[in-house]
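User: Just a sanity check before I run the rest of the batch. Below are the structure tokens for the first item. I only need the designed sequence back.
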């Protein structure tokens, strides 16, 4: 009979209504439901610790530029600014995406390239942040900052650097041909008999990173919506490409003049054009959205 009573008690405990009658279980459930929102974000970040370890090692061995720290800092600043406005009830779609991304990043450790795993982890963290921030915070730039947090500049330079250098050299050839005799071979230009090579820094990869970072940061700072952000991204791409072509053309013309150009001139021109591009991107992103006129309905 004692065994029968124990089995009956276990059956009652297994039923939901049996659990709800136990004060300890109810208190535990209330504690979980009323836990501060930042705890869930902290737990999500802690679950992705292999990604942080890999990113830290990649930055310490100087195999990539540490610009991702700037994007991560921007995400942290956003979470801090919104800490008093975090939603007590998260948006379930974003929360499900965050959990799915975290599980995928954990299970794919050692199976997929580390950069792909880090992409899954960082987008999962961004989705978790989107689940708790107010609806007025655009999700697209948050996801954009998570992608920019990746140590991917070296990979982009390896795979896309040369095609970008060739495209930049060709555009510079068209501009320089207005007043010089110019020939192009690959990523090299022969200007009035002077050979000038368009090297890796002139590919525009870093300028593109700063341009898109400026677009994400300005959109979040000014509380613009996803529509304004996404529809203006093509303009950001045009600004970045144009700025890189202008910088390359000016430097190639200076090198082809026959006089040695000091290194500080290269750096000064590059920083000046970069500042102009970022300012132009900020201006484009800060423009107010055009209100769509209401159309009268005929009944």
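Assistant: Here's the designed sequence for the first item:
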């Amino acid at each position: 009979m004692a065994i029968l009573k124990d089995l009956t008690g276990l059956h009652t405990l297994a039923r939901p209504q049996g659990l709800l009658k136990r004060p300890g279980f109810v208190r535990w459930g209330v504690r979980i439901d009323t836990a501060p929102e930042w705890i869930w974000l902290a737990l999500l970040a802690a679950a992705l610790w292999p990604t942080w370890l890999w990113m830290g090692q990649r930055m310490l061995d100087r195999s990539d530029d540490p610009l991702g720290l700037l994007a991560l800092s921007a995400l942290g600043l956003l979470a801090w600014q919104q800490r008093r406005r975090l939603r007590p009830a998260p948006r379930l779609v974003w929360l499900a995406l965050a959990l799915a991304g975290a599980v995928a990043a954990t299970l794919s450790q050692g199976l997929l390239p580390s950069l792909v795993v880090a992409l899954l982890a960082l987008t999962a963290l961004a989705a978790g942040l989107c689940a708790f921030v107010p609806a007025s915070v655009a999700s697209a730039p948050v996801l954009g900052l998570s992608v920019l947090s990746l140590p991917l500049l070296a990979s982009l330079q390896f795979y896309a650097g040369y095609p970008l250098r060739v495209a930049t050299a060709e555009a510079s050839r068209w501009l320089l041909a207005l007043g010089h005799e110019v020939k192009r071979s690959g990523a090299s230009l022969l200007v009035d008999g002077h050979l000038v090579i368009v090297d890796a820094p002139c590919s525009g990869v870093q300028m593109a990173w700063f341009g898109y970072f400026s677009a994400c940061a300005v959109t979040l700072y000014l509380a613009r919506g996803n529509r304004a952000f996404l529809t203006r991204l093509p303009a950001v791409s045009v600004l970045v490409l144009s700025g890189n072509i202008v910088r390359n053309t000016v430097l190639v013309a200076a090198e082809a003049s026959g006089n040695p150009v000091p290194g500080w001139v290269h750096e000064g021109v590059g920083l000046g054009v970069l500042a102009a591009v970022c300012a132009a991107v900020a201006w484009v992103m800060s423009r107010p959205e055009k209100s769509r006129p209401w159309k009268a309905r005929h009944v």
